[in-house]
Amino acid sequence: MRLGERIEATTTISTDDRTWLLERLAELRERYTALPPGLPRGVVHGDAWRGNIARTGDGRTILLDLESCALGPPEWDLTSTAVSRVTTGWLDAGEWADYSAAYDLDVTTWTGFDVLRDIRELRMTSMACQVAATDPERYGQQAAHRLACLRGRRGSRPWPGWEAVP
After folding, report:
1. 129 occurs within a structural domain
2. How far apart are the C-alpha atoms of 126 and 132, rounded to whole Å?
3. Number of domains making up the chain
4. Quick one: CA torsion of 64, 162, 86, 68, rounded to 10 degrees?
5. pLDDT digits (tens, 9 = 90+) for 26-70
6. How far apart are CA 27 and CA 163, in angstroms?
7. C-alpha to C-alpha distance for 73 and 46, rounded to whole angstroms
8. Per residue in 111-146, is it b (16+ CB within 10 Å) or e — as a string?
9. CA distance linking residue 119 with residue 17, whole number of Å
10. Does 13 score more than 70 pLDDT?
11. What is the dihedral of CA 69, 5, 119, 19, to 10 degrees?
């Protein structure tokens, strides 16, 4: 489901929040078209995070969930992990340093990072809102918390309290 459709279909948020999310989406689409130069465009996974990686018994690493695979800025895939550091605080400084060293790039220092981070946060929040509709008692507070963070009601990043949703 596309992001705009996901936001429109969300039943667990107020009209004001839905309007804000849709306006934010429009703003981020515009900002994306003006991304500064970065790495050469290439094939990106599209949803690169720990949950989409499997390691085989012989030590090979396999990427799963290739439905978002596309041509785009490689920084997009790196941003998924960066959000686990700067937005949610799920990665500590050492883990982030190791990750950045492995890629020989700290994507958070790229001038276009904020745009990709903001898009990733919006996607994560809209997913939480969608999941909350199926189980409001379990995920409703998480969706509301993420939305409050994005709207500037929970202080600055990293925002504690972000929890994984299926």
Report:
1. yes
2. 10
3. 1
4. 30
5. 999 999 999 999 999 999 998 888 788 899 999 999 989 888 899
6. 26
7. 10
8. ebbebbbbbbbbbbbbbbbbbbeeeeeebbebbbbb
9. 16
10. yes
11. 170
- Token duo for residue 113: 């990072």
- Name the β-bridge partners of 55: 61
Residue 14, domain member (yes or no): yes
Which residue range forms the structural domain that includes residue 139? Answer: 3-38+77-150
Residues 6+ apart with CB under 8 A from 164: none
Give pLDDT tens digits for 100-109. Answer: 999 999 999 9
Q: For residue 61, is it within any domain?
A: no
Please tell me the predicted confidence (pLDDT) of residue 2: 87
The DSSP call for residue 53 is E
How many helical (H) and strand (E) elements, i.e. helices and strands, does the chain have? 6, 4
Chain segment 130-162, per-residue pLDDT in tens: 999 999 999 999 999 999 999 999 999 999 999
Which residue type does 139 have? Y
Asked whether 147 and 139 are in contact (CB, 8 A), the reply is no
pTM of this prediction? 0.92
pLDDT of residue 47: 84
Inside any domain, residue 43: no
In angstroms, the CA 48 to CA 124 distance is: 13
